[in-house]
Amino acid sequence: MDKQKWEPKIVAFVCNWCTYTGADLAGTSRMKYPANTKMIRVMCSGSIDPVFILKAFERGADGVLISGCHPNDCHYNAGNFHARRRWDFFHELLDFIGIEKGRLQFSWISASEGKKFADVISKVTKDIKALGPFTDYQKMNSEFTAFFPEETAEDHEVLNKVEEIV
Amino acid sequence: MTVRVLPGSVKIFSGVEYSTDYKYMCSDPGQNLIKEAIHKYRLDAIVVGSCSPHMHERTFRNAAVSAGINPFMVEIANLREHCSWVHDDIESSTHKAIELVRMAIEKVKRDKPLTKINVPVTKRVLVIGGGIAGIQAALDVANAGYEVVLVEKEPSIGGHMSQLSETFPTLDCSQCILTPRMVEVHQHPKIKLLSYSEVVKVEGFIGNFKVTIKKKARHINEDLCSGCGLCITKCPIKKKAYNSFEEDLAFRSAIYIPFPQAIPNIPVIDETVCTYYKTGKCGMCVKVCDRQAIDFDQKDTMLVADIGAIIVATGFKLYSIDKKSADSKYKGYGEYGYGKYRDVIDGLQFERIASASGPTSGEIKRPSDGKEPKKIAFIQCVGSRDDSKGISYCSKICCMYTAKQAMLYKHKVHDGEAYIFYMDIRAGGKMYEEFVRRAIEEDDVKYIRGRVSRIYEKNGKYIVKGEDTIAGMPVEIEADMIVLATAMIPQDNAADLARTIGVPYDKYGFYNESHPKLKPVESTTAGIFLAGACQSPKDIPESVAMASAAACKTIILLSSDTLEREPVVAKVNEDLCAGCFYCKKVCPFGAVEVKDVKDINGIVYKEVAYINQGVCQGCGTCTATCLSKSIELAGFNNEEIFAEIAAL
Amino acid sequence: MSANTSKDTKKLQPSFVTSPPAPDSCQNTYNNSDHTQKHTVADEISERTFQDVSLCYQCGKCSAGCPIRYYMDIAPNKVVRLIQLGYYDEALKSETPWLCAGCLTCSTRCPKEFDLAKFMDAVREIAIEKGVEVKQKNIIKFHQAFLDQIRKHGRSYEVGLVAEYKMKTLDLLQDIDSAPGLYLKGKLGILPHNIKDRKVIKNIFKKTKNKTDNRDTESTY
Amino acid sequence: MNYGYFPGCSQTGSAKEYDISLRRVIDKLGVSFDEIEDWSCCGATSAHATNHKLSTALAMRNIMLAEQQGMESIIAPCAACYNRLIMSQFEIANHSGVKQETEKLLSSKFLKDIKVFNVLELFLKIGINKIAENRKRELSDLKVACYYGCLLVRPAAITKFDDAEQPTSMEKIVESTGAHTIDWNYKVECCGAAHSIARRDIVVDLSKNIIDDARAHGANVMAVACPMCHTNLDMRQRAMRRKYPGHEEFPVLYLTELIGLALGMNERELGIDLHYIDFKYADSALENSIANKMG
Ligand SMILES: Cc1cc2nc3c(=O)[nH]c(=O)nc-3n(C[C@H](O)[C@H](O)[C@H](O)COP(=O)(O)OP(=O)(O)OC[C@H]3O[C@@H](n4cnc5c(N)ncnc54)[C@H](O)[C@@H]3O)c2cc1C
Ligand SMILES: Cc1cc2nc3c(=O)[nH]c(=O)nc-3n(C[C@H](O)[C@H](O)[C@H](O)COP(=O)(O)OP(=O)(O)OC[C@H]3O[C@@H](n4cnc5c(N)ncnc54)[C@H](O)[C@@H]3O)c2cc1C
Ligand code: SF4
Ligand code: SF4
Ligand code: SF4
Ligand code: SF4
Ligand code: SF4
Ligand code: SF4
Ligand code: SF4
Ligand code: SF4
To answer: What pLDDT score does C180 carry?
Structure first.
């Protein structure tokens, strides 16, 4: 691949209520950011399954961004709380299976943070560019995907905590 | 971005039958273009590359419907806000636009037709709590023509407002404005008042709640009693129980009506002190009641009601400085004596003392010896804004009621001196700052900025050790009486009730609104609304405004016979479900239920998750949590999202 | 104490004050101060006390309950305020930290759970390091004398303490009513209790000696 | 039961009688101590007032010794020592780096958790009924103002044994001697301990307030559990009278002396005769109280 011409491919999973709307605002405000990122809209960052991310890497994404509402600002109260817990853990796991941590990034962008959205996309694009192309995706296969669901202990803990809070 | 090239580029993707472009797709001619294409090419799904779905998704779905295809077979590629407006580079943005359209195409190919969910609506509202907020909400809803069930845990409605003397910022008498409202509730043909009752169970979902209410035994037959009060005057047990309405500044008899204006005006027998329940003797009340209304054998009864919407208006409680148990999240004030000094009272006690109908008939007297205090100190922010005592928030109303009380004191004790120790004066409201200035300028109330460190008794006086942080001088005042503006905290059982009815609450126990700015009276549970001080500390004007808003929201809900909901809800594949119920634990709305799966013989062989479509809000948290991938969120299922990813 | 007063050192002041109306009398007493420095006195205090000075919301409850309040030049809460805003000179020169008896009344009652007693410890410590001239000389001399006893003997030796303190303060009469009494009652030993492992104590003193303290070793901290 | 004992410097000098009475009393109650060998000063007030690292290291040296000498817990009868020891332990446990730093200074490692008790905790552990059972005198004519001072119960979050504002444990102990206790306002007010020498004027004022409040609430004796408090409240009464000529003498006893009296020891045995303010628990009183009890 020609390093010069190579442009990273980035997938962003964003929640419908905050980040997606924040991106709309960036648009209506004509803020500029690189075109490398494509967004997949979900209802809540809590519904983003780690498998989605692995799939994205499998499909040759060089980086993945997850973004939802700010903590406490979740449209669904607790959804992004789950997301956060899950991601902390998943981030470690990613490192473990050999994908650089920097390829998966998180941010909390509210519907009114168009500027932040543009900044985050620019930053993520820059970061991923610096990491270079993700070439291991051919090696990835569903083994990883299968591997993930085993991690229940942590989830357990998270769930129990949630019970106390809700 | 070059729009021109798009139709040709996307045409080559598999499944695409037709593609075109138009300048204003959302305009009528644009919509007609879509409809014509659907007919002409017998399309079963469409992708619109346009502006944000938040803008025109509905427009295009309606167009699809009128052309005969399911509205959920429409996907929008956001080419304006997410592409053309944000990228300058023509080549890359055009490329991105094509990919966005492809993703939408891949998704729409897997979309399934969905139908909106219709749920019927029961046209009856439950109001929990009969303070001013509950009263206002009940009256508004009833006046709109809907039935209301008002549940109040105390023997009478009225809440805290019935205890107040005069109210800021106008200094009008609380009872005078409240009593007519209470009577109206009592007489309203659409309101069923269940006093001395509590909600014990809430099942169901928006439009279709089933609520179980426990009616506690008053030991009086409400249908027979005329409220003559003869039983009360004759009851020999007069001083065994503190009068909680009078904030323990007076006693009451074993059979009592909490206060003269009580609604309903029917007594209650306090089993814990009544001689009959102790020895089986007495029965004086029975003898004097010529209507045979006394019923010692009366038992608690359970009522079940079908309810369409719920308004929670359970109010607040005042923090007391008593020593708290070790496991309490609050701590008492040892430095102020843990409540051992009788003349160190709280705000509500002062309200009773200043109240014309109170234990002192409105004369300012101190509890220990009944003397008129010549020097009075008020201390603000007691409990509030105090991390170490467990309450970090500002109680919002105490600055105002303290100013009011100092004024009332000065109006009644002309030669008295009033000092207020404060940290900040928070008087944001119409005529509020003016009110505080009046206390300072006209009534000569002395405000001293600084938190008091200690109170102790010395020769019948109370030494208040403070610091004037503005002057930078220590201050010691020998006061005759001290009024603590203690914090407004949630009711004792606030968290329990929240769990019973299914509303979320914050770390203190106040109920959470759905959005702090734009949905302030909705709880996050559909069909449950909030009013008054159960949501956060509030004064009367705010409580009433919130109550009317909540009433209005329920009226909107009840105005249609059925509710239409977006079909974006989760559904469990029962064959796959392992019955681990992680989904149940994470669902923020309690939408997941346990369902028994039976074999042909009717024997339960496993339990699976079942999602109540009326309750589910479609967040999808459960889908990501389910390890066996047995839950799908309609419109955003894994297959659809994988397809989008695959289209990258 | 050595006075490091120097007219040309800049007065340490909050960055928002543009033209310092500083009269000569409150010129700064540091030898190494510069308000452009990144690591401020407030930062230093936060590090030593493990709590941020911004926690304090200036309610004054600490001062209201402080038993020594009436003897102080400025209220304890004001010392925190001065540090919060960057008026380090004024804070470090105040008598208040020196008069603070470390009784923890303030720390116990503070609604923000700010440990003010510990804060005062840090202010004193920094004042010493910066060589700020302290008005409460007797108190500082007492501390010096006390610690000298420990350094020398491993324990506090009351006769030595009083003797050294008297030497330092030249206040020979003050305790006259109690010391002889103590002798008579057999409560004061004439000889110090020396612990065995005095080396370790000396070592502790040496290693913890404040870096910027350049006064003679025998009577500093 | 066997405890490690950290007497503190004052106990070897001006508070000799505290040490004496404590040892006698617990001996009578069947408890003994092992004094920490080669203990050193905890650095109280002066060290932490001026140098936090020094302060922690000085205090923790003693904890380290106790650990090395196989002790599980330590009794620190001086409130100031007690406070320094537990505060230093707290620092080490809760703030990163402090432990390593201190270990380096002491060239040794902390391995165990040594529990430090003050004298109130000690008696509560021994059991106050033990005092009542062994009582030889009924001190019922004593009305005792229990003075905790500032450092015994603070900070409550760390000391964790009694209420910081309205403590009651000393009252419980004193009542087990048959004496009465009074409720008063200055239980936890500071006497200015640290300034006993350098700012005697302050100490005199503060201590006078404390004595006055005790007297005003009907006390005829005060019980203390700290040598610094005792110095200020007993020894400084002369200075008090110089400054406030109307000041009347007021006896101040160590808690241990009070218990000793109840257990039947006399003033000499307990070192009460070493106080500045005379306290003669006359034998007549003894007889009276016994007579009272019988009658
Ligand atoms: C000392 C003081 C002085 C004040 N002075 C003023 C003033 O001058 N002006 C002003 O505007 N505001 C004043 N206020 C504030 C005012 O009292 C409140 O704003 C108002 O009472 C809030 O009304 P509410 O209906 O939300 O709550 P509440 O008055 O607390 O009513 C709640 C009701 O719900 C009932 N309830 C609770 N739990 C349950 C349950 N589980 N089931 C059934 N029923 C339940 C309670 O019994 C109560 O009747 C003052 C407050 C205090 C403390
Ligand atoms: C600097 C600033 C910062 C703020 N920050 C916050 C914040 O962070 N959070 C927050 O909650 N609130 C904030 N607010 C407050 C918030 O702006 C207001 O609460 C809110 O805008 C009020 O909404 P409104 O609809 O009542 O009035 P407005 O927003 O004033 O809307 C009134 C509308 O009526 C129109 N209008 C006026 N007269 C007529 C007429 N005669 N005929 C027809 N139309 C008319 C006006 O053109 C206007 O569109 C802030 C306010 C200010 C000034
Ligand atoms: S971009 Fe959106 S708003 Fe504009 S014409 Fe197209 S569909 Fe309509
Ligand atoms: S119970 Fe009987 S006596 Fe009592 S108020 Fe009712 S009617 Fe009157
Ligand atoms: S039976 Fe009970 S309530 Fe009735 S009069 Fe007697 S004590 Fe009062
Ligand atoms: S309203 Fe006033 S008194 Fe009440 S907590 Fe807030 S600032 Fe304090
Ligand atoms: S998480 Fe999945 S497997 Fe577990 S109960 Fe819910 S649907 Fe069934
Ligand atoms: S989608 Fe959200 S609301 Fe619906 S059942 Fe799942 S977790 Fe609950
Ligand atoms: S009590 Fe605490 S918050 Fe209040 S002024 Fe003092 S240090 Fe600051
Ligand atoms: S620790 Fe110091 S500042 Fe705090 S109350 Fe005691 S003497 Fe005052």
So the answer is: 52
Q: Do C61 and B452 make contact, defined as CB atoms within 8 angstroms?
A: yes
CB atoms within 10 A of CB C207: 13
User: Pocket of ligand 8, candidates B117, B571, B592, B593: which has the most ligand atoms within 8 Å of its Cβ, to mutate?
Assistant: B592
The residue among B321, B325, B335, B476 with the most chain D CBs within 10 A of its CB, best to mutate, is B335
Strand, helix or coil at B557? helix
Q: Tell whether ligand 6 has an atom less than 6 A from the beta carbon of residue B300.
A: no
Length of chain D (residues): 295
Å from CA of B386 to ligand 6 middle: 11
Asked if the model's pLDDT at residue C1 lies above 80, the reply is no
| CA-B629 nearest atom, ligand 7 | 2
Q: Report the CATH number of the B319-489 domain.
A: 3.50.50.60
Chain B residues lying within 8 Å of D163, measured CB to CB = 323, 334
Chain D environment of C71 (Cβ under 8 Å): 199, 202
The closest-lying atom of ligand 1 relative to the alpha carbon of residue B317 is 30
Which among A16-30, B203-217, B258-272, C183-197 has the top mean pLDDT?
B258-272
Class of domain B117-216+300-315+491-560: alpha beta
- Domains of chain A (ranges; CATH) run 7-165 (3.40.50)
**Are A8 and A125 within 8 A, CB to CB?**
yes
Vertex D179 angle, CA D176 and D181, to 5°: 95
The ranges assigned to domains in chain B are: 3-115, 117-216+300-315+491-560, 217-299, 319-489, 570-646
Domain range D2-119, CATH class: mainly alpha
The pLDDT of A115-133, averaged and rounded, is: 92
- Mean per-residue pLDDT, B280-293: 94
Structure tokens at D240: 């008090």
CA distance B380 to B484: 6
- In terms of DSSP bridges, do strands B488-490 and B316-318 run parallel, antiparallel, or are they unpaired? antiparallel
ipTM, two decimals, is 0.78
Alpha helices (H) in B124-263, listed in sequence order = 132-143, 174-187, 230-234
Q: What is the pLDDT of residues A19-45, one digit of tens each?
A: 998 899 899 889 999 999 999 999 888
Rg (alpha carbons) of chain C, rounded to whole number: 19
- At residue A56, what are phi and psi to the nearest 5 degrees? -60, -45
d(CA B76, CA B108): 9
The arrangement of strands across the sheet holding B208-215 comes to B197-205, B208-215, B301-307
Predicted TM-score of the model (pTM):
0.80
**Cα D257 to ligand 3 centroid, rounded to whole Å:** 93
Q: List the single residue in A26, A33, A59 with the smallest CB-CB distance to B646.
A: A59
**Nearest 5°: phi and psi at B319?**
-65, 135
- Sign for the CA dihedral angle at D215, D81, D190, C144 comes to positive
Residues of A in contact with B95 (CB under 8 A): 35
Nearest to A163 by CA among B188, D154, B586: B586
Kindly list the residues from chain D whose CB atom is less than 8 angstroms away from the CB atom of residue B335: 165
Residue reference for tokens 């006061």: B479
Residue D60 confidence class, pLDDT cut points 50, 70, 90? very high
Q: In what order do the strands lie in the sheet with A37-42?
A: A37-42, A10-15, A63-68, A104-108
Identify the closest residue of chain B to A162 by CA–CA distance: B586
Burial of B498 (0-12, 13-18, 19+ CB in 10 A): buried
pLDDT digit string (tens) for B482-514?
999 999 999 999 989 988 887 878 889 999 888
Q: What is the DSSP letter of C130?
A: T
